[in-house]
Amino acid sequence: MDACIKEISVSDLLIRTRVQPAWDWQSPAVNRLHVVLHVGWYDTVYFLKNRDIFLDTLHCRYSAKFNYDPRDALITHYRYLDDGDLDEIKELNEFERQMDDLKDKVEFIRVFRDGTRETT
């Protein structure tokens, strides 16, 4: 588990040397053989477009280093309520549905620290 947490941290640092991400890892924790990651997303549309990115080929290859298949993960998404409490997202609310309808029309431009750009 320690090696897994270290690799996640190193990977995140490497990403951050290239680009300012639209997410933040919050307090990775280890409980027996379980790792709990809280990822804070800064943009609703970005979240809706990328919330399952951990299942892409690159992430799966990276996870294989730990004999781990991301499809075995228990993923729970939450939204913050106006009072600061958390609410599990079981279905999208009205605002999230509007953003979900827009997600394929929105492009995100990543500007890397070396000046190169990438559109997603």
Structure write-up:
The chain has helices spanning 2-18, 44-50, 57-64, 94-102, and strands at 23-31, 34-41, 78-80, 86-88, 109-111, 117-119. With 120 residues, it is of the alpha+beta class. The strands form 3 sheets. The protein has a two-stranded antiparallel ribbon. The protein has a two-stranded antiparallel sheet with strand order 3-4. Helix 2 (44-50) packs across helix 4. The chain starts with a helix and ends with a strand.
The helix/strand series, from N terminus to C terminus, equals HEEHHEEHEE
Helical coverage, percent range: 25-40%
Q: Count the strands?
A: 6
N- to C-terminal distance: 32 Å
Q: What is the topological layout?
A:
Elements: H1 2-18, E1 23-31, E2 34-41, H2 44-50, H3 57-64, E3 78-80, E4 86-88, H4 94-102, E5 109-111, E6 117-119
Antiparallel strand pairs: 1-2, 3-4, 5-6
Task: Summarize the model shown.
This protein is α+β, with helices and mostly antiparallel strands and 120 residues long. Helix content is 34%, strand content 24%.
